Amino acid sequence: MSKSSAIIRRWSGTILKIVIIGSVISGLVYWMKFSPISVQTVEVSSGTLIAEVMGTGTLEARIKSTVSPKISGRIEAVLVDQGDRVTSGQLLIQLDDLELQQQVAIAQANIDSAIAAIERLKSEKVRATAVYEQAQRNHGRVQGLVKQNVATQDEADTATESLEVAAADVSRSQAAIIEGQQSHIAAQKNLEYHRAKLQDTHIKAPFDGLIVRRNREPGDVVVPGSSVLTLISTEELWISAWVDETEMAKLKKNQSANVQFRSEASKTFPGKVARLGQETDRETREFIVDVQVLELPSNWAVGQRAEVYIEVARKENVIQIPATLVIRNAGQVGVYILKNDHTQWQPITLGLRSREHVEVTEGLEVGSIVITPIDENISLSQGRKVFVP
């Protein structure tokens, strides 16, 4: 074999390999660029479209109270537990009251003593009054005798002095009675004070509601302000939701809302806007919207997270498509529709938006077929052949 023949064979093999590789690459390019793509279809429909503003927050009670003692003491009994419903005035906590009962008994004894002292002073006044009246009669008799020159001036002076002493005794008795009455009033106030402190050992529910937390047990020593129980009213529960400030102009009181608790994400519960916050967080640029929950799940807890969807607009009989089908292409909004087994780019104009759908005001008609690739990693292009599995 000549040297030239060997070179030709080597070049022939190399060219063959290049041709084969090129054919494979060409086939792959063709397959990737021109082979049919499997798509799913969505028929354009019409119906009601509801625009909503979404916020995330927690379930809170409008009326909430920390049940705590007004006085220091040791807890003798906690009569309710978390999860219990209570009524206004119901006894919730009993503090040890033995010492206070003794103080009430002492205060009552002081009142009895003050009453007895007043009665004694009144008796003394009666006696002083009788002496005074006798002194008056004697003074008058002596003065008459002096005028008749029967009694001496010394006897008259003695009678006058006796009258003045008797009058002073009457005044002193009256002053003593007034002082005793003041002591009686002070003793009554002292009794009322100790009775009030004794009453403070009985801690009662300030309103009808639900116990959501129990923080203390019998034997614990508490001081004023110590949290023993947390009580909420179930009359008005709401989601305090954070909403972006750009949505502020769309919101107002009493708008309908749907509440979706994360504990039951597949269900929604009715609600309405109760009030709008008047302050925006300066970092997140969000503000609080309180949405009253009109119906609760069977199991719920204060503080649990939820999403609220507030209805801000509604349209009937509008052309709509799922929002996921909308594509932005070179600054243009549109969708791909099915045309003779090929894709066709269709620009559209959007209107109202809901949670999952958008209104199409121009570009589509009811019954049009919008397509999207089954494989999310594949993008459609104009004129690409497609098939529906």
Description:
The chain has 389 residues and is an alpha+beta fold. Among the domains are: 52-61 and 233-313, Efflux pump adaptor protein, beta barrel domain (Elongation Factor Tu (Ef-tu), domain 3, Beta Barrel); 65-95 and 201-231, OB fold (Dihydrolipoamide Acetyltransferase, E2P) (Beta Barrel), CATH 2.40.50; 98-199, Helix Hairpins, CATH 1.10.287.620. Helices cover 33% and strands 37% of the residues. The chain contains three helices and 22 strands. Strands 1, 16, 17, 18, 21 and 22 form a six-stranded mixed sheet that branches. Strands 2-11-14-13-12-15 form a six-stranded antiparallel β-barrel. A four-stranded antiparallel sheet has the order 3-10-8-5, with no helix packed on it. A hairpin with a 2-residue loop joins strand 17 (332-339) and strand 18. The longest helix has 50 residues, at 98-147. The two termini are 59 Å apart. The model has no long low-confidence stretch (mean pLDDT 88).
